[in-house]
Design goal:
Layout: H1 4-18, E1 22-28, E2 34-35, E3 46-53, E4 56-62, E5 71-76, E6 81-87, E7 96-103, E8 110-116, E9 122-127, H2 152-159, H3 167-172, H4 182-192, H5 205-224, E10 265-269, E11 272-276
Parallel strand pairs: 2-9
Antiparallel strand pairs: 1-7, 3-4, 4-5, 5-9, 6-8, 7-8, 10-11
Helix pairs in contact: 1-5, 2-5, 4-5
The chain binds a DNA duplex (12 and 12 nucleotides) through residues 1-3, 6, 55, 76-80, 95, 116-121, 162, 164-165, 169, 172, 174, 181-183, 228, 230-233, 250, 270-273.
Length: 313
DNA sequence: ACCTACCTGTTT
DNA sequence: AAACAGGTAGGT
């Protein structure tokens, strides 16, 4: 589920409601979700902020709200994880695995709850050594696409060591660039006009420029829409996102392209379903034989290249 | 660089 | 009944 825009939306929605509050009771209902952590070790710690790195959320914890950070609570939501606030008067929501009671001097206690249908998500409590800015686990993550320092040159540099990968696979590799998943990789490639199966080695500098711009634009717009809700995603207030209404290719296979009306294609790439517009994102290696023309009713259908022998209709 | 596993729910 | 789903770790 949650990719960078969803995680960021959760962060922004939770921030004003959890900062300065102290953790009271901790209930780890499902073993293994709160990894290697005695839940009592969280009690008494105060949240001084929430940060995001790629698709990870990091809660800064300390003995007081303004003292040094002594621990990080690191969360990854994987496919169906949710992090929401819940009044203590309400019944336990389905698939709740961890509950943190948040205390405040003047406000009612609330639960910060972690729900996860598929139980892929994980939460870690990590000691913060003096001066540590981030949990060491995050050291391998690639650059943040919304960092001002991110640009075409950075992207090219990151991809350089993976020349044989498809550009789609490269965008999904969290060590190359942090935060993109299947939705925003496909949407970024559409906006950049790049065929997803293009090899990294063949990308030109102007294509890196287009791609870097596309990534930052798509992510910023998705955050402005509070993320994409396909099924499970909600922010800290349990509100759905709206970016699903603006998707150009993800989940749009067989529908007309919003830009050129040709039908969106679908295939399997890097083990993931991949959608693209065959006209806006042309394959430069496609054996064509003819001059570039508008596809009226041509063979570029919403079909995997691997199934081309099937030939129906 | 690819596969499979991890889970449950929904769709075909 | 089988395929598929926003993600990643781990093995080959």
């Amino acid at each position: 589920m949650p990719e960078l825009p969803e995680v960021e939306s959760i962060r922004l929605s939770l921030l004003p409601r959890v900062t300065g509050r102290t953790i009271g009771t901790v209930l780890a209902d499902t073993p293994g979700v709160l990894v290697d952590t005695d839940s009592s070790s969280l009690s008494g710690l105060t949240i001084s902020g929430i940060r995001r790195r790629g698709k990870y959320l990091v809660f800064d914890l300390g003995q007081s709200g303004d003292g040094p950070v002594t621990a990080f609570l690191m969360v990854h939501l994987r496919m169906t994880g949710r992090l929401t606030l819940q009044p203590q008067s309400q019944p336990v929501r389905p698939h709740t695995h961890v509950r943190l009671e948040l205390l405040s001097g003047c406000l009612e206690p609330v639960w910060l709850i972690f729900q996860d249908t598929r139980r892929f998500g994980r939460i870690w409590l990590i000691p913060a050594p003096d001066g540590a800015q981030w949990p060491g686990h995050l050291a391998r993550l690639g650059p943040e696409p919304l960092d001002p320092a991110f640009n075409a040159q950075v992207l090219k540099q990151q991809m350089a060591r993976h020349a044989r990968l498809s550009v789609k696979a490269a965008l999904l590799d969290q060590t190359i660039i942090a935060g993109l998943g299947n939705i925003y990789a496909d949407e970024s490639l559409f906006r950049a006009g790049l065929y997803p199966a293009r090899k990294v080695a063949g990308l030109q500098i102007n294509e890196y420029t287009r791609l870097a711009h596309a990534i930052t634009q798509v992510l910023a717009e998705a955050i402005a829409c509070c993320g994409t809700t396909l099924r499970d995603y909600v922010d800290g207030w349990s509100r759905e996102g709206q970016f699903q209404n603006f998707l150009n290719v993800y989940g749009q296979a067989g529908k007309p392209c919003r830009r050129c009306t040709s039908l969106i294609s679908k295939g399997k790439l890097a083990g993931r379903t991949t959608s693209w517009c065959p006209v806006c994102q042309p394959d430069p290696d496609a054996y064509d034989g003819t001059v570039q023309e508008q596809p009226s009713s041509v063979s570029v259908q919403a079909q995997s290249p691997a199934n081309s022998h099937q030939g129906r209709g």
